[in-house]
Design a protein that fits this description.
With 378 residues, this protein is an alpha/beta fold. It is 37% helix and 17% strand. Strands 4-5-7-6-8-9-10-11 form an 8-stranded mixed beta sheet, sandwiched between helices. A 3-stranded antiparallel beta sheet has the order 1-2-3.
Length: 378
């Protein structure tokens, strides 16, 4: 269950936070990375929405997206499927995205993981853009996108967000209704799989990089949709929700500190040299939004039965790549094997990396993605 996976993260945040006194402001000061500053270069690929800049990391010599605190492009998303208030989302939500590569090239959409943003694909966008039109999207509630106080159960926002982004942003820009390849890490993998399964008219193929998501529990009987909760059960739900909100608020206060973020990242990266100040800052800044704590609670508090990986794979009719960091302590290689058992045609590629293989081992991840994408075109 991806909520048990989030629980691991939250527990880890609280455990790490307890090692440092909250009363000491200095304890939260993020240690500056010792890596020399990167070399700034202008990207050769301009978009109709402006240019993106590359830089070269002096440590690795790799080209990456230059960090911009203000972000890149914004789209006012009106979710036609949002009926929670009895009407469509007429005001819209501010959604962040960036893009690179020739507009006529095959489109690829990158979806970040839990707590991250479009910037997390910094080492992948320049390489993939040599052969593809590459888009990176910030899911609602994350990154530079609006911290909307809405229902996030079962990807309720993210599935239509991805679908609408393809139809309203990608297709008009490329001038054709060409299906898009989705590449998602962690939570973004779950959102990508859901979108690919439910909207085959929009999605050509799906790549999961240590994808999150719950499997069916064979020990639990299926829920009866007609059963009414007793008064005691309703009270338990309310009390549990209040307790969970307090615990999650405490976790969020501790987790959003730069030093805490760096500590958590160190636990799930094998290449510690990748953990520079820009990466940490790209996670810290969204957490300063006044609504961020409430969104953190909403994303981590599920109120409906989960949309399972089993159900999504049963509907999927597209090529599937499982690109897995074999050293991930959260979503282990055993999960990739579970997915492949349910979807035997899936291609599995393992990397000596942690939870975020695309940023932990960008050379290996880029090579695997490009090889797989090339096979899709042939």
């Amino acid at each position: 269950d991806h909520h048990s996976y989030y629980s691991k993260i939250i527990f880890m945040m609280l455990s790490l936070g307890s090692r440092t006194a909250l009363s000491s402001p200095k304890s939260f000061k993020s240690p500056r990375s010792r890596a020399p500053p990167p070399i700034r270069v202008r990207a050769t690929s301009a978009t109709q929405n402006g240019t993106v800049d590359w830089e070269i990391c002096r440590q690795s010599g790799l080209t990456r997206l230059q960090y911009r605190r203000e972000g890149w492009n914004f789209w006012q998303w009106r979710n036609s499927q949002d009926t929670s208030s009895g009407a469509s989302d007429s005001s819209g939500k501010r959604v962040h995205w960036c893009a690179a590569g020739e507009i006529g090239a095959p489109p690829v959409l990158l979806i970040h993981g839990y707590g991250a943003s479009a910037y997390h694909w910094r080492y992948n966008i320049p390489e993939l853009a040599k052969h593809h039109r590459v888009y990176a999207l910030c899911l609602l509630g994350f990154g530079w996108s609006e911290k909307a106080q809405v229902d996030y159960n079962n990807g309720k926002q993210w599935i239509p967000q991805i679908a609408d982004f393809i139809e309203q942003v990608i297709w008009p820009e490329i001038g054709t209704k060409q299906r898009v390849v989705l590449v998602g890490n962690s939570l973004g993998g779950y959102a990508s799989l859901a979108a690919g399964s439910l909207r085959p008219d929009l999605v050509r193929a799906v790549a999961l990089l240590n994808g999150a998501g719950p499997f069916e529990d064979p020990t639990k009987p299926p829920a009866d949709p007609n059963r009414q909760q007793t008064l005691t059960e309703q009270l338990q739900v309310v009390v549990t929700g209040l307790i969970k909100r307090v615990v999650l608020l405490l976790a969020f206060v501790r987790a959003k500190q730069p030093a805490r973020i760096r500590e958590v990242l160190e636990l799930v990266y094998t290449n510690k040299g990748q953990l520079d100040d820009d990466l940490v800052d790209s996670i810290v800044q969204p957490a300063t939004d006044p609504a961020a704590a409430d969104v953190f609670y909403r994303i981590n508090h599920r109120t409906t039965p989960p949309l399972t990986i089993n159900a999504l794979l049963a509907r999927l009719q597209a090529p599937l790549l499982l690109l897995w960091g074999l050293q991930d302590p959260w979503i282990t290689p055993a999960k990739a094997e579970q997915v492949r058992a349910l979807y035997p045609t899936a291609q599995l590629v393992g990397l000596q990396a942690g939870h975020c293989p695309h940023d932990d081992d960008p050379v290996g991840a880029n090579a695997a993605l490009l090889n797989w994408l090339k096979d899709l075109k042939d």
